[in-house]
Amino acid sequence: MAANDQQKAIGPSVPLRERYLVYPGAPLPDFATSTAQAFHAEDRRDPKRQFFAVVARPGFPTRTNVMRALKGVDNPGLMTMVEWGVMDWPPANRKVMAVIYEKPLGGRVMANMTSEFRPIPEADMVKKVITPMTEALKKLRALSLTHRAIRPTNMYWATAERDRIVLGDCVTTPPAFEQPAIVEPLDSGQCNPAGRGAGTYTDDSYALGASLVMLLQGRNLVAKQDDAVVIRNKMINGSYSALVGDARMPVQMIEVLRGLLCDDAAQRWHVEGLELWLAGRRMSPLISKNEKRASRAFNFGGKDHTTARELSVAFSKNFDAAAQAVLDGRLELWLRRSLDQADKATAVSDAMHSAVAIAADKKPAFDYMVSKVCMILDSTAPIRYKGLNFLPDGLGALLAVTVVEGGDIKLIAEAILRSITKSWVETRESYNPENSMMESAFNTQKVFLERTTIGNGVERLVYEMNDSMPCLSSHVVDEYVIDIRDLLPALNNAARKNEGKGWPVERHIAAFIAARATFDVERAIYELSEGNPARAALAMLNILAVMQWRLGQGGMTSLAGWVAGLMGPAVNSYYNRETRKQIEKELPRIAKEGNLVEMARVLDNPEARALDQQGYEQARHDYAVMAQDIRNIEAGQIGTDDEGVKTAQQIASLISVTIAFITTTLLLISRFFNG
Amino acid sequence: MAKPAKGKGKPEAKGKAKPKGSNKLLILVTAMALVPFSLPTLMVMVCAMLPTLGAALAERGGSRYAWVCVGGMNFSGLAPWLFDLWFGHHTIDYAIHQITGVSMLLISYGAAGVGWLIYLAVPPVVATFTTMTSQRRSVVLISDQKKLLEIWGDGIAKSGMEL
After folding, report:
1. Which helix (H) or strand (E) holds A42?
2. Window A:469-498, CB contacts with B under 8 Å
3. Global pTM?
4. Which residues between 44 and 63 in chain B have a beta carbon less than 8 angstroms from any beta carbon of chain A?
5. How does pLDDT run across A40-74, given as a tens digit for each residue?
6. Do B48 and B78 touch, CB atoms closer than 8 A?
7. In chain A, what residues touch B63 (CB-CB under 8 Å)?
8. What was the ipTM of the complex prediction?
9. Nearest-by-CA chain A residue for B146
10. In the predicted model, what is the mean pLDDT of chain A?
11. Which of A146-150, A218-222, B152-156 is predicted with the least confidence, judged by mean pLDDT?
């Protein structure tokens, strides 16, 4: 009775994979994030266990690869994800991505980045925080994953007794999307939130280090500082000094904090360092190297800059002025004389000469130059392009979020078309084979972007660069299609709802199929934009038919009806009216069966088409012959033309020869009878 | 090296022409062989069939039917005298007698003239007849064209095919 009463109080539920029930009427703000809502959830098989569901913001790219890997993982430092998937969501009247977690019973550690909470005593840090967090990082690395959402506001007390901390959800947003800049390493922290990318294991270490500082102090020590100020401090004084400042840290903790907050990613602690530290091995704390300061400051934008990094940030905020500073040679001189960095000066000079050598439109060349110079000045910085800051592996998510939010994708497209990522690879201090692979992938994506036809362009790029991006086509956007297997059923539903308006395979659908299909559809995709309505209609049908055949999905009656209604140009591409009538008669029957493969077979039968073409050519010839005959008749040429005269002469000859024969025969007969 | 290619088609053409030439030669040789045995016939025929010979020599163009037409009628006119020669006195004297007589030449030449008349008169008659039947044929053709258009569409008429 009590359970029923509770259910009545929180309203109806929505099932996920037939097992878990999510209650839209029971929100849990304590587990929600700025982009994902949380709701009470239940397991039908075990109603006593406590669960909650995180519902991703509709349309946002999620991390399905991480979901697959973390489902069912039982780790002392991670919330246990028991299920994930797409489910109906009545409040939004659409489908959404939901993730079910076992509920941590002790609540959130830190309500928001400015709030204060009871500091965790140094004595409890190892047991309650560092040990479970080390286990979490170890597990994540074993699964080749990064968490990218380690921050005190996404940490929960696992038990009511508050004896262990677990990390919260990391899969319902793009990597590090909700991370405050202060818990991110310098490169990632300077990026647009969506452009941070999955990063590396040491990015998680850094976030843990920054979180530990807050957990030890019970507050964010730099809460009142602007992100830009914190980043500048990190650049000048190093992350440890920037985040800890004058606060007193327990001596025992300084080593681990310095290790985790080391600005050099190669030296930064990860699991090994933490495990050694937990095992009692003490090492000398890592001291970050300070950025080299110039003997004379470089004045730019009315401010003096003494390090190349600072100048790089300043340049990134004013591309036009930066271009002038580079072109007038001041920067090269400053690097050579004041900073004594001849290699960087040479690189800047090369970039400048390359830009000047381009005879065409100078503006794009100078933009490219400034972007490259920014990367030369700070080789650990993200890619900077006219206000856009991102790491190469975050470009996909950045594009996806911009598209979903209806932002301007012009800058991102420009960055890709101008191969900005190539400059990033060129300006790295050490060679990384992964960068070459990434560059090759970017070259392919650039080709997709350059093609403006259906199935290419920005839409294609969104799906190519984001494996878990749901299809954004207006036909299926409410169905949250992330798997190509769900596309035909979703289109079938759309056909039922929309009564077949427009084309089922429009730009987003075509791009989604092209990016997700494991079979070849490129030829058909190309024909969609070829300009021939009949071939386009057949190409659309063929794409859907191949999908139905490959995925074994029958009974798409509404979709087949929708498609059949669009096959007019394809039917009319047959010359023979009888064939057309026959096909038009067959189409409704095939549509009722929902068989797109059969429809394609009937409409695009090569033998039938060859016969039709052959018949047409014959008819064309016959018609022309008849027309010529008619013209001859009308011109009175029949009988008087060469052929007619010849025939008449033959007749005359025949008459003459016949007379000769008869005469000869009669004479011979008379001779015989007269003796 | 180019010369053999140039004359590539010649052997074939020669091969085709050879039987025709040999036939003519055979006829000529046979005729020459018969001359001692049928000189009277030859004399009569050469004289009486002059219009045919003339027609054959005068006619030009691809279709040569005038000499057949004239020849047929010419022979019809000559036949009674020729038979007299063959079944009566097949001698040179009789042949000369016939040639010198006016009636044979008159009748055979006259018949040849009729042959010319037939040759000239039949084509206009045939043309008139063909015109009469072609009106009917035109209606049938238009009807067939309509049927083709119904089955294959206007494209077959607009395709610009010229014969």
Report:
1. strand A37-43
2. none
3. 0.78
4. 63
5. 999 999 989 999 999 999 888 899 999 999 999 99
6. yes
7. 646, 649-650
8. 0.74
9. A623
10. 91
11. B152-156
Is residue A481 within 8 A of residue A470, CB to CB? The reply is yes
Residues near A598 by Cβ (< 8 Å), separated by ≥ 6?
A: A590
- Chain B: closest CA distance from residue A192 (Å): 59
- Residue B13 confidence (pLDDT) above 80: no
Query: Per-residue pLDDT for A87 more than 80?
Result: yes
Give yes or no for B141 touching A (CB within 8 A).
yes
Scanning every residue of chain B, which has its alpha carbon at the shortest distance from the alpha carbon of A651?
B122
Q: Output the six-digit token pair for A667.
A: 């004479």
Query: A563: distance to nearest CA of chain B, Å?
Result: 25
Least reliable range by pLDDT among A203-207, A430-434, B145-149: A430-434
Amino acid at A666: L
Output the pLDDT for position A639. 59
Fold type of domain A122-278: Transferase(Phosphotransferase); domain 1 (1.10.510)
SS (H, E, C) A464-507: HHCCCCCCCCCCCHHHCCCCHHHHHHHHHHHHHHHCCCCCCCCH
> A614 and chain B: CB distance < 8 Å anywhere?
no
> Across-strand partners of A293?
none
List of residues 6+ apart from A493 with CB closer than 8 A: A476, A479, A558
Q: Which residue has the tokens 């790219």?
A: A61
Q: How many CB atoms lie within 10 A of CB B144?
A: 15
Could you say which of 2.30.29.30, 3.40.50.10860, 3.40.1160.10, 3.30.200.20 is the CATH number of the domain covering A3-102?
A: 3.30.200.20
Domain-by-domain residue ranges, chain A?
3-102, 122-278, 298-463, 479-523+539-604, 606-640, 642-675
